[in-house]
Amino acid sequence: xxxxxxxxxxxxxxxxxxxxxxxxxxxxxxxxxxxxxxxxxxxxxxxxxxxxxxxxxxxxxxxxxxxxxxxxxxxxxxxxxxxxxxxxxxxxxxxxxxxxxxxxxxxxxxxxxxxxxxxxxxxxxxxxxx
Amino acid sequence: xxxxxxxxxxxxxxxxxxxxxxxxxxxxxxxxxxxxxxxxxxxxxxxxxxxxxxxxxxxxxxxxxxxxxxxxxxxxxxxxxxxxxxxxxxxxxxxxxxxxxxxxxxxxxxxxxxxxxxxxxxxxxxxxxxxxxxxxxxxxxxxxxxxxxxxxxxxxxxxxxxxxxxxxxxxxxxxxxxxxxxxxxxxxxxxxxxxxxxxxxxxxxxxxxxxxxxxxxxxxxxxxxxxxxxxxxxxxxxxxxxxxxxxxxxxxxxxxxxxxxxxxxxxxxxxxxxxxxxxxxxxxxxxxxxxxxxxxxxxxxxxxxxxxxxxxxxxxxxxxx
Lengths: 130, 321
Ligand SMILES: Nc1nc2c(ncn2[C@@H]2O[C@H](COP(=O)(O)OP(=O)(O)OP(=O)(O)O)[C@@H](O)[C@H]2O)c(=O)[nH]1
Ligand SMILES: [Mg+2]
Description:
The complex is a heterodimer of chains A (130) and B (321). By secondary structure, chain A is α/β, with parallel strands linked by helices. Chain A has one domain (3-125): Cobalamin-binding domain (Rossmann fold, 3-Layer(aba) Sandwich). Chain A has five helices and five strands. Chain B folds into two domains: 45-251, 3-Layer(aba) Sandwich (Rossmann fold); 261-315, no CATH class. In chain B, strands 4-2-5-1-6-7-8 form a seven-stranded parallel sheet, sandwiched between helices. By secondary structure, chain B is of the alpha/beta class. In chain B, 49% of the residues lie in helices and 13% in strands. Chain B is built from 13 helices and eight strands. The two termini of chain B are 20 Å apart. The chains are: A alpha/beta (130), B alpha/beta (321). The A-B interface holds A 1, 22-23, 25-36, 39, 42-43, 46-47, 49-52, 79-80, 130 and B 16-17, 19-21, 23-24, 27-28, 30, 86-87, 89-96, 98-99, 102, 105-106, 111-114, 116, 118. Strand 2 (31-34) of chain A pairs parallel with strand 3 of chain B. Residues 56-62, 97, 100, 149, 193-194, 196-197, 228-230 of chain B line the site of guanosine-5'-triphosphate (GTP). The site of magnesium ion has 4 residues of chain B, from helix 4.
């Protein structure tokens, strides 16, 4: 059973996209922990730790990814959560993708990504087998 | 790969990473999860296990958040397990109880885990029983279990909890639902949440009235507490009721009895698991067309056949597939 945390860091005003992803992952047979809006990096990583998820899916629309993502990844390393697959979605300009990958994010999904691609990616890349 | 025995010290010391990994083993039904529960069971007697049940949306998660904050202010460590339903179609689940618990879970004295039912009926997941054992052994003084908000038949929590809180909201018909669902019988305390809404007094009165007619234990009259979980109103009184119930269980000798009853329930659950595995194995290994033939021609008695197949499947097996 694949467990995923869908998290929305920062001050984004709505979470429609995140909920669409959460439902798609559930319908693909995954267990999705959803924590709602306005999460701090500390809250997110603490939830990853306690829920022991295989995947962290971040959704950021606000443009704050250059500060939020490095902080989240730093905390992930501090807690030795290195086997968690981290995905980033929302509105991430093409020019920023490489920098995000450098922080340890596995893959950036742009707006309009087919949820099926995300599901396939997760199934292929989850690092922890049962 | 580390063993169950190696994980025990980290769990007993209350390290979040060890606790989280142990819970995962228990949920994924590893041999290691089973070994872990076995090792930890003798250390798990001290925690006060409190069930929180009630219909969807009555405010169980919001209440758990508030209860946790108040218990923490009393210096107690709190473990939380929140169960949400798995989809019967995909097997997946959305576990959303954490949304309402954000204030309380970022604290070293608190550990919260979301669980999906994975087909288990009764408002809990199968792993909840092992998970409670682990959290108790990890030194959490109080363990709050939020059941699935099914509105009825989530009565299994009373097998596991020392104290069961039944949460209702004001509104016509809720009391009637309560009787139908049989939850009057399972509550050690009743919470009328959303007391900021109209009709809370009326609901509380109705519950008290019905309780006076159907009391199971004359020595403990379940208190009915009004709360506004969103604002934190009535929480101290509720925590007080929970603490008084623990004291009552202690003094009446029921605390010790409950642990025996729990052990028994665990054995029953495990017997059920073995039976299900045996059925699954028989379904894989038996030549069903021959069996069917035998039954249709009147040769075999279905009952006797079932007994034999079950015994055959169980024989010589001492571990899980
Ligand atoms: N008016 C009012 N609303 C409340 C109160 N407590 C909780 N709510 C709201 O009720 C809704 C449901 O609250 P939850 O705590 O998620 O309820 P729940 O019983 O855990 O729900 P499920 O887990 O889905 O069964 C939320 O929108 C809360 O903000 C209260 O005391 N008064
Ligand atoms: Mg809830």
